[in-house]
TrEMBL record:
<dbReference type="InterPro" id="IPR043168">
    <property type="entry name" value="DegV_C"/>
</dbReference>
<protein>
    <submittedName>
        <fullName>DegV family protein</fullName>
    </submittedName>
</protein>
<dbReference type="Pfam" id="PF02645">
    <property type="entry name" value="DegV"/>
</dbReference>
<dbReference type="InterPro" id="IPR003797">
    <property type="entry name" value="DegV"/>
</dbReference>
<keyword id="KW-0446">Lipid-binding</keyword>
<dbReference type="InterPro" id="IPR050270">
    <property type="entry name" value="DegV_domain_contain"/>
</dbReference>
Amino acid sequence: MSKVAVITDSTSYIPEHIRNEKNIVMIPLNVVFDKETYKEEAEIKADDFYDMVSKEEALPKTSQPAIGELVELLEELSQNYDEAVMITLSSGISGTYQSAVAAGEMVEGIKLHVFDSEISCSPQAFYVLKATELASEGSNGYDIMNHLLQMKNNGVPAYFMVDDLNHLHRGGRLNTAQLFVGNLLQIKPILHFEDKKIVPFEKVRTKKKALKRIFDIMDENVKPNDKVKISVIHAKREDEAVEIADELREKFTNADVWVSYFGPVIGTHLGEGSLGITWIKE
């Protein structure tokens, strides 16, 4: 039987205790403040990141893991595994997928399958956790990849509400006039992933209405008794996320609902105060 390792990059934001428990290997992306580079999840945590962003004029930059780190990781894994499945964040917002493919071709003794989640955060985690489950049941890398592709084809909806327009302005996504009008009208953009990139879905006035809009989309897709996994994702708004998760548990009685977070790399795109909801039917 082929032994399969499961690798994720840091942007799936799977807590360390779950990674340890399920034997998930994590390789971090980097966040760069001025000339200081921090490995996400290893050297900088989400709350510290948002505190640093609030004090800096310029937004940080992000970068993928160095190809040498990926090669080193695969060489290490090749001592105990025949295959590895790596699930990366969207290739539309990071070069991690391409680097992993290149690293896989440079290492002998282990077959690397790289899966482009075309998304990030909890939706990416859905793929990672399924891959881990299949690997523990004895599936080989090809079977795991086919199953993940089927999941992707079935759809993993995810919608993110941006709370702080100033963050989008600092990142060059809004000009000054759009910022002024947006703040005046209390616009809360809802974003989603489309063609591998984070793009606007709708502009909604007020946070309450934006969240209601996401709930409405979910209602169109999920029935109260459906068996479904739901994740509520937040950028330094844990109390709000917990409240939303409680509401969803009451509404969807067969749902497995958990709270996750936007770490530094994705937080650079969305900003503090952002909230997201994602789900996948089982």
